[in-house]
Amino acid sequence: MDLATFAGSLGLDAITPALAGSDNVNSSELLGGNEVKRTPTEANGNSSGPRIGVFICHCGSNIAGTVDTSKVREAAEKLPGVVAAKENKYTCSDLGQDEIIAAIKENKVERVVVAACSPRMHEPTFRSCIQEAGLNPYLLQMVNLREQCSWVHSREKDKATEKAIDLVRMGVAKAAKLVPLEAREVPVEQSSLVIGGGVAGIQAALDLAQMGFKVYLVESEPSIGGRMAQLDKTFPTGDCAICILAPKMVELARHPNITLLSYSEVEEVTGFIGSYEVKVRRKARYVVEKKCVGCGVCADSCPVKVDNEFDMGFGKRKAIYVPFPQAVPLKYTIDKDNCIHFKTGKCKACVKACANEAIDHEMEDEIVELKVGTIICATGFDTYVPMKRGVYKYWEYQNVITGLELERLLNASGPTGGHLIRPSDEKTPKRVAFIQCVGSRNKKIGVNYCSRVCCMYSMKNAQIIKEHEPDTEIAVYYNDIRAFGKGFEELYHRVREEYGIEFIRGRPAKLSEDPETNSITIRAEETLLNKITERQFDLIVLATGLQPSEGGKRIGKILSLSLSPDGFFMEAHPKLRPVDTAIDGIYLAGCAQGPKDIPDSVAQAKAAAASAASIMAGKNVKIEPLTALIDESLCVGCGLCEEMCPYGAPEVFESDKGTKAKIVEALCHGCGTCAAACPQKAITANQFTDEQIASEIVSALGGIGVTAEKAKKAAKKAEEA
Amino acid sequence: MEKGVDLEERRPIYEPKIVAFCCNWCSYAGADLAGTTRLQYPTNVRIVRVMCSGRVDPAFVLKAFSLGADGVLVAGCHPSDCHYINGNEKAAMRGTFLSEFLEDAGLEPQRFKVEWIAGSEGQKFANIVKQMVAELEALGPIAEGCA
User: Fold this and answer.
1) Is the CB of residue A181 less than 8 Å away from at least one CB of chain B?
2) Residue B86 belongs to a domain with what CATH number?
3) Chain B residues touching A697 at Cβ < 8 A
4) Torsion angles phi and psi, residue A33, rounded to 5
5) Alpha-carbon gap: A440 to the closest alpha carbon of chain B (Å)
6) What is this structure's pTM?
7) What is the CATH number of domain A27-181?
8) Which of A103, A29, A24, A91 is nearest to A58 (CA)?
9) Does ipTM come in above 0.90?
């Protein structure tokens, strides 16, 4: 069957003239949709259609180096409705924008096409630019000549120019169909949700609270503190991690503007910038927070001992526990999976021990509902665990440990009280080797990117070991040393020169264990000496890299955040909007966005807090008017839109003209799936109407170059010959 | 390059044209990423930006074919990653219906695709375009009487 006939049989012809397929594609259709034919003079501004201005950006040589922009301009000048077509070296610059404004005024331009970079980059810039010239900001159409043309076709200049002309034609066709829209203004809740209670989340929450905003901090673990709380000291200065973090943790818990929801999970987030509705599950601790004073008598009485996750399995904790002594809130939590009472219904030793009657085995999860204006996502990282078999024998040899495990072994409040031991015989190792880039910069076993902190934490830990046991022989097997931060290079020099730590350039090829002593021999090519060496060590520390956290992935789905290729959350722009996400009102802080050290995490947290505050400081926020509208005269009240919409925006109601549907604007997110489904074509998806999209399709297929039509004819000719 | 050889003559005369409907949040961002990482792919594709793959009315696809498109791509977020909760599922549903219909109408299945391309998958976008162009070149123009 003929497709056009089929489209007709579906009723598309009658209902949507803009979509009606036609076999006789005439030139006016190719150029501007199903418009009235225009003569060239009409095209130059005398027609009834809107007057269009086209601005083609060179972007330095980014576009002009590949696309022949003057050809594009010449083609644009001939398009129907175009009254001005200009080229700019940098359209987004002040000069470029001034030129747009001048051209709009001079030529009475009514619709603007900017052929430059991706609309994801500069659409807001040009919207405010044309607004300055007195136009409605939604009368702008961007044409993506950079990301989707010049940069991806840099070796095919002629074809790229051809494509650019097609793209501009599509843009002009759509621009002709644009209608003015008004942004909705909605009130902003003066409160923020911070997800994650690591150093980034803590800092962001404190800053916002200090500015006077209400903050809800949700942390999934029983205590805030995150990864930083697990560390011993921090590089390059050697500050004790918990000593500088604990005061912030305490300040947070005491701050009148902050509600700390520890041992809680964000379950659901709906709404949009200014008014997000959040459901938080407060997991049952089985200890009433208000009654618990953190004395620890319950833990003393508890007969169950299990590995403490906080100590990376080296230390033990009870089934009723705080993860570490400085925990905030200092409230005990019962680990249901290991508690004897939950297993057998007996015991209750802790209940007997607690003088405050704080323990309640009957406690249930509770759902808390919050309303916030902005959200900061600070979900942190997990360290790489060498799960793949054979990765430096982590699962086979006891004396191979990871960097984070070493942190706990060196920590004064850790399982060994800060005395370094090796797991096999609990003796102090005399020879320690660090292996760098484990899981980072190595796609075979882990990921491609550099985790940024491993070089420095290994040096810092090597220094601490030397301070504890000056006779220890320490070697670092590395690929490249990346000591790029403030004071980092100095630390590198210090550990080499003052502490005598050896740096060996080369990736170890083989580790083998002496079955009697459990010491491990590293066979490696020392690439600077160009020879293969074998050396024995008592303890091997793998400098494991950073990966997106599992909990963060779950939150990412709930918030619909995009990911970068490395799996961390993607920022709105890598340079200029590094803490924003593509979703208005949601910001990133810390390692959720990518591997970072503590100062960078804190800096980003402060930036995220400032960004969130800049929204909340205004009483209202503008929301893009990309919503759907129902034409009641066409609507037959079938209710399909209601069925399609995930937000419940369409509402079927009875009117004196029969059953109809309408869109509740505040609920509409503007996806347009209702418009695609409506059998009556009664729904208009603003800025992406049937007519606008159809005009793009028509002009996309009427391009210069060999069209299928021409090719068919050519093929026929060839056959005949 | 040899002198006197007209490269134009060597090229196949047939240049398939693909209309790609890309959702703003994932696939369009993926196509942008292909650009920022300077991945090269054939020029045959024309992207129409929509907010969600669920916006793509089957009529758009039919319209594109009836106007001479050799291939149509509908690209959205991966299942369960949709910015609008489940618009991509609706795109998939319509895609299945369209594929069956287009096949009945005599079009080869390679001509119409629904793909999931994340904002981080610039490479995937480039690969899909490359593959689709190669397949369409091998197929040649749509047979007379189909569209």
Assistant:
1) no
2) 3.40.50.960
3) 19, 48, 60, 63-64, 67, 69
4) 80, -170
5) 19
6) 0.82
7) 3.40.50
8) A91
9) yes
